[in-house]
């Protein structure tokens, strides 16, 4: 019997267009919010800004806050998603400059912007807003585990920051292009900024993780697909709790494993080796079958950005033959990605 579920998270209206703030980031994986917005919402981004020491770029024009405001920007988005979601002291002066230029500040970090005294004072003085995206809705229920109507796909990963969001967005786009009724369900700050709504799963109290996933993807018509953005990894020593709650609550009929074949250790936890794709498939089925016994793997999404086109094609073909599943890079697309879409919808 289908379980009634609560409402979806309210839609999010942010001041756009954005100026993307990269801080002093030197690791591209930690700038995934900036890259996600630049890649999936380019019409809402006017440029990027950074401070000394930054070695990362989205490829957008490097602008001062004043130039960005003159170009139409209405907010500066903190494009960094670092470990712990902290706001570095070295960023504060640049963010104050942005407010003085007439920009609101949008953050997906765990730390609340208004808890930083200098930012709170600047907001009072300039009249600009401090907007925290990583805020879950009130009244999230505990999970009930009952089966809901409709179909669900969840992207899962061997680690963090390697393509779960991009894969979900690409699959959702492919489903819609095929005339399928589908929604992208955002579960992280960047996805929420792109989609205009969702629930930041890593800001939800652990007891309510599964319940949050249930209200994020409520009962739907039988032919409807919810494509749910995955978070973390059930093999990550720090973030497995979020991943497991999302897996149980979303009750996926199909999951796609996302993997970066160039990565050998867990990001930011170098004493832990990356799990294999095979291990993730096996454990996801064993854990996911608790709330959906019919769960299956639709295929694998590889982040082949570190490889040439020829190397990527050979690697995907070899992995597909080894696993007996479609293997594709959604960003490269092509026949391999079409086969992955076919498998998910089969």
UniProtKB/TrEMBL annotation:
Alphabetized InterPro entries for the sequence: DgcN-like, DgcN-like_C, DgcN-like_N, P-loop_NTPase
Protein's name in the database: EBNA-1 nuclear protein
D-glutamate N-acetyltransferase-like N-terminal domain segment(s): 58-136
Top-rank lineage group of the source organism: Bacteria
Family annotation (Gene3D superfamilies): NAD(P)-binding Rossmann-like Domain, P-loop containing nucleotide triphosphate hydrolases
Domain D-glutamate N-acetyltransferase-like C-terminal: 142-335
Biological classification of the source: Bacteria, Pseudomonadati, Pseudomonadota, Alphaproteobacteria, Sphingomonadales
One Pfam family this sequence matches: DUF1611_N
């Amino acid at each position: 019997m289908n379980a009634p579920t609560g409402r979806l998270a309210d839609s999010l209206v942010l001041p756009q267009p954005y100026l993307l703030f990269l801080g002093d980031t030197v690791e591209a994986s930690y700038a995934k919010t900036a890259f996600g917005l630049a890649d999936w919402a380019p019409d809402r981004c006017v440029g990027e800004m950074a401070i000394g020491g930054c070695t990362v770029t989205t490829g957008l024009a490097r602008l001062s806050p004043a130039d960005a405001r003159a170009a139409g920007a209405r907010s500066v988005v903190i494009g960094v998603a670092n470990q712990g979601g902290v706001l570095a002291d070295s960023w504060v002066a640049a963010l104050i400059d942005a407010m003085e230029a007439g920009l609101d500040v949008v953050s997906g970090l765990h730390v609340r912007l208004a808890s930083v005294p200098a930012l709170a004072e600047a907001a009072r003085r300039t009249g600009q807003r401090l907007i925290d995206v990583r805020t879950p809705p009130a009244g999230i229920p505990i999970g009930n585990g009952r089966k809901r109507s409709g179909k669900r796909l969840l992207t899962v990963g061997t680690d963090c920051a390697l393509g779960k969001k991009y894969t979900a967005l690409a699959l959702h786009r492919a489903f819609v292009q095929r005339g399928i009724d589908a929604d992208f369900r955002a579960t992280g700050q960047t996805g929420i900024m792109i989609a205009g709504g969702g629930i930041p799963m890593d800001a939800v109290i652990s007891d309510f993780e599964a319940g949050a996933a249930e209200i994020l993807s409520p009962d739907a018509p039988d032919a409807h697909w919810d494509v749910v953005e995955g978070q973390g990894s059930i093999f990550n020593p720090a973030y497995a709790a979020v991943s497991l709650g999302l897996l149980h609550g979303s009750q996926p009929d199909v999951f796609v494993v996302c993997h970066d074949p160039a990565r050998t250790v867990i990001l930011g936890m170098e004493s832990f080796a990356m799990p294999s794709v095979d291990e993730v498939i096996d454990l996801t089925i064993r854990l996911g079958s608790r709330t959906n016994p019919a769960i299956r793997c639709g295929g694998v999404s590889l982040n082949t950005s570190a490889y040439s086109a020829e190397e990527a094609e050979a690697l995907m073909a070899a992995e597909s033959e080894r696993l007996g599943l479609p293997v594709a890079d959604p960003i490269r697309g092509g026949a391999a990605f079409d086969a992955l879409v076919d498998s998910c919808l089969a």
